[in-house]
Amino acid sequence: MHMHKVTGNSDNMEEILSLFFSQISLLCFDKAKEIVERERDTSPAGPYRLFLSQLPNLLIAEKSYVELGFVSSKNKIFLRKDNSLKSMYEQLRQDLHKLEESSDIKVALMAGKICHYLMLRSQLIDIYEKLYGMGSSNRPMKCEEVLTQVEGILDAILKSQSDLNMIKASCMLVEIKAYIS
Q: Pfam families recorded for this chain (predicted)?
């Protein structure tokens, strides 16, 4: 992989984030962490550095998501009751939402895009929970409700396609790899 020169400011944010999300899509979480930490360490204090300091938390959540961290096989319980992954996504979303109000427009825009992505991830976990509930009940499954939720998520992704290009591509690759594995 070609290493790009890091300037330590938000001017190269898209390039850094493209590298970051590409590594996530390849399930190379350590490389993604190195990229963001190197950029953060060379950045001056301010909104961009605060934004970069949130990305390792996103890595932890994404790794847990890919590893089905919200699933527990202990004691034959499929889904964890506390659903700490959803809590992680929500906390990260709240932290990034604060950055949306920052004076740096690039940071605010990217924080907003990632907040939207995190909301979609939480909705996917809700769908998994619903599918498990339907599958474990003795009643016939009503798939229309789940289908409506899935279509809603797809619509949200399509509507924000240009805004979430980087993230969406990574998300789709991770989803495909997770289901193939």
A: C12orf66_like (PF09404)
